[in-house]
Amino acid sequence: MAKPDQLPSDSTLQQYYSPGDFMDSYSSSLKGRPDLLDCDIRLLAEQIGNIEIDWAVNLLKLRNILMQPFRLKSTKDLMDNAQVPPLEKTIGDRVAFFKIYNISENEIILGEDDWHQDFRVSLYRTSAANPRVIMTTICKRHNAFGYAYLAAILPFHKLIVRSTLEAGIKKAITAT
User: Fold this and answer.
1) CA distances from 75 to 8, 35, 169 (A)
2) Domains of the chain
3) Which of 51-60, 81-90, 133-142: highest mean pLDDT?
4) pLDDT for position 128
5) What are the Cα distances from residue 103, in Å, to 3, 44, 72, 87, 144?
6) Which residue did the predictor score with more confidence, 146 or 75?
7) 144-170 and 41-49 are packed helices; what angle lies between their axes, rounded to 10 degrees?
8) Of the candidates 172, 171, 167, 165, the residue with the CA atom closest to the CA atom of residue 4
9) What is the mean pLDDT of the chain?
10) How far apart are CA 166 and CA 158, in angstroms?
11) Which of 7-11, 15-19, 67-71, 144-148 has the lowest mean pLDDT?
12) Count of CB atoms situated within 10 Å of the CB of 169
């Protein structure tokens, strides 16, 4: 089960964080999943980022409809139609609707910038005695709408992050 955690001190995302930013982290165990411990981090990101949970997909569709009058980027606007194979993706490509900002052996930084807020998501894999994957989100809110937006979606954000993390880890690697 995904549980609250902390951004690792050596995460690249540490450089992005500023006091006053929103940040949350959740982790899930990778024990018994050597395929996820040994795979390229881009495959793990694809595994988790592209998991489809019906209620979460429907919530994102509703979000897109409700936010259209406010000119927020929609998930549809951001989807990568180029279908770059996961192992060929690089900075600027997308995992689902998230832009890739950084890739290292055990961490990938994804996110998006918009007029109300910018956000980054770190998917960080540890391989210590208790191997796990840690998903951390940081949001930089630019204005009152950014604060209100985050407050409105936060309960759903937490449910979606925990659910996608769990479902992605339970599923066998399918991308190659």
Assistant:
1) 28, 29, 23
2) 3-170 (3.30.530)
3) 133-142
4) 82
5) 24, 12, 26, 11, 32
6) 146
7) 110
8) 165
9) 89
10) 12
11) 67-71
12) 19
